[in-house]
């Protein structure tokens, strides 16, 4: 495709047919489920893409700061990744191989094992499961239940680990159901969230109190928690609103689970492969999990999911967790190329530097604006929490979320050619997840568009409020 430049953002070339996209979108709405999400907030029809850029069917150019919800670590259609996919297609190799060994799988696993966090890479086992992060999470939980014989799972407020439920409940094969309960109980624990601290204190104290609370609750003979099968957490909560776990808190969770013999599962589906400024987010804190859940970027933009875990936990019987599409050869080729690019081109370090540049710019945009309650992030996982400027802050300075203003800012960004998404409580956090290959020029352009969009959305909101008050 023709190289897309920042000067082209939001511009459609002569000769583009403006009727194509509306027709396709109308057919999508007529045919597809009401469960559609991104299609509602991003009414575009991509037809070309390269790097950080997308071209719509109407010819408009968009700067993509969503990147497949963090899947596209090296951007759209990276030439090295595309060449790997084309090589496999030209070779005549099988595209579907279940869990049978193939040269592509062997090369992928060799690269992946070498990229695992120190302490896990020395003697890991890899489970290829269904090609989604949700299935990998289910697999990790089932393994923990199998190893420990316990059913309860320790999880955290704000967590997001996938959309599946009840698959085992509706399965008729008794052999698949007998070893484990359909589901164990989930004990919900407070995740440290300084801006909306669950303990009402905020700041560093949020993490300190959370760690102390978890430890005391687990040790309380009247705390109501039976022996847990596992603890699962995200080093940075993504869908929960871009909330980084403090390093000291992560180390505390590792220490208390180790001391009590509780397997620690880290969900790095979105944070992994350089996204947060280290290859795996847990490396920043020096934490080694018992199980590491991976998907998104490890497939190079194609469906793939893997659980890596300590070899001594490998107590499963053959077929204890399976999946028809666990042998996606194109995804393994694309994934190996992506992992190698991130490693050899120091893209984790690039993510850290670009993230600092963007974070500084976001803080500048937020300065003096009471409707931006918090700016936070790690590497190229960044978020701005949009709040009501009219409502009084609570005791720790947090105002109520303003999801309507957040949605308006996102719409203004799209109109100007910038794709971002929402998350967090009430979908009031503007989320930025650009490819790790984002340039300084592209980062600055995104900040410029976001600043214009914030101003436009707030002016529109103020005008609408004034009109409503006048009418009343």
From TrEMBL:
Entry keyword Nucleus: no
What's the cofactor?
pyridoxal 5'-phosphate
Q: What's its EC?
A: 2.6.1.76
Lineage of origin: Bacteria, Bacillati, Actinomycetota, Actinomycetes, Frankiales
Identification of the protein by name: Diaminobutyrate--2-oxoglutarate transaminase
Q: Does the keyword Transferase apply?
A: yes
SUPFAM superfamilies per record: PLP-dependent transferases
Task: Name the top EC class.
Answer: transferase
The pathway it acts in is:
Amine and polyamine biosynthesis; ectoine biosynthesis; L-ectoine from L-aspartate 4-semialdehyde: step 1/3
Q: Which UniProt keywords apply?
A: Aminotransferase, Pyridoxal phosphate, Transferase
- A molecular-function term among this protein's GO annotations: pyridoxal phosphate binding
Q: Which family does it belong to?
A: Belongs to the class-III pyridoxal-phosphate-dependent aminotransferase family.
Q: Which domain of life is it from?
A: Bacteria
In terms of CDD domains, this protein maps to: OAT_like
- What organism, scientifically named, is this protein from? Parafrankia soli
């Amino acid at each position: 495709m023709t190289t897309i430049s920042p000067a082209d953002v939001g511009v459609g070339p002569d000769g583009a047919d403006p009727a194509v996209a509306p027709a396709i979108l109308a057919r999508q709405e007529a045919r597809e489920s009401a469960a559609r999400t991104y299609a509602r907030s991003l009414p575009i029809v991509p037809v070309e893409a390269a790097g950080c850029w997308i071209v719509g069917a109407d010819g408009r150019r968009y700067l993509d700061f969503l990147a497949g919800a963090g899947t596209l670590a090296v951007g759209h259609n990276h030439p090295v990744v595309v060449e790997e996919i084309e090589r496999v297609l030209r070779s005549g190799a099988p595209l579907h191989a279940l869990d049978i060994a193939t040269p592509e799988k062997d090369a992928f696993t060799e690269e992946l094992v070498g990229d695992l966090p120190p302490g896990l890479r020395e003697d890991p086992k890899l489970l290829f499961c269904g090609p989604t992060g949700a299935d990998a999470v289910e697999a990790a939980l089932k393994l923990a239940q199998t190893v420990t014989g316990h059913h309860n799972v320790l999880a955290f407020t704000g967590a997001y680990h996938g959309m599946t439920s009840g698959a085992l409940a509706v399965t008729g094969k008794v052999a698949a159901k007998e070893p484990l309960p359909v589901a164990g109980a989930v004990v919900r624990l407070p995740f440290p969230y300084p801006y909306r601290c669950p303990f009402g204190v905020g700041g560093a104290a949020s993490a300190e109190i959370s760690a102390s609370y978890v430890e005391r609750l687990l040790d309380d003979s009247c705390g109501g928690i039976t022996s847990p099968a596992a603890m699962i957490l995200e080093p940075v909560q993504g869908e929960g609103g871009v909330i980084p776990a403090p390093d000291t808190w992560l180390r505390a969770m590792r220490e208390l689970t180790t001391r009590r013999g509780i397997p620690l599962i880290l969900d790095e589906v979105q944070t992994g492969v350089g996204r947060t400024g280290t290859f795996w987010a847990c490396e920043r804190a020096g934490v080694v999990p018992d199980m590491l859940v991976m998907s998104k970027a490890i497939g190079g933009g194609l469906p793939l999911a893997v659980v890596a875990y300590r070899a001594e936990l490998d107590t499963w019987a053959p077929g204890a967790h399976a999946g028809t599409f666990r042998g996606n050869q194109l995804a393994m080729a694309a994934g190996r190329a992506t992992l190698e690019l991130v490693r050899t081109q120091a893209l984790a370090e690039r993510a850290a530097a670009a993230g600092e540049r963007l974070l500084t710019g976001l803080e500048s945009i937020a300065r003096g604006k009471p409707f931006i309650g918090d700016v936070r992030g790690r590497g190229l996982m960044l978020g701005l929490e949009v709040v009501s400027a009219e409502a009084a802050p609570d005791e720790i300075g947090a105002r109520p979320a303003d999801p309507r203003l957040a949605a308006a800012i996102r719409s203004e960004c799209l109109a100007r050619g910038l794709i971002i998404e929402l998350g967090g409580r009430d979908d009031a956090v503007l989320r930025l997840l650009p490819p790790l290959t984002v340039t300084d020029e592209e980062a600055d352009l995104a900040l410029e568009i976001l600043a214009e969009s914030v101003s436009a959305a707030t002016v529109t909101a103020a005008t609408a409020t004034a009109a409503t008050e006048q009418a009343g």
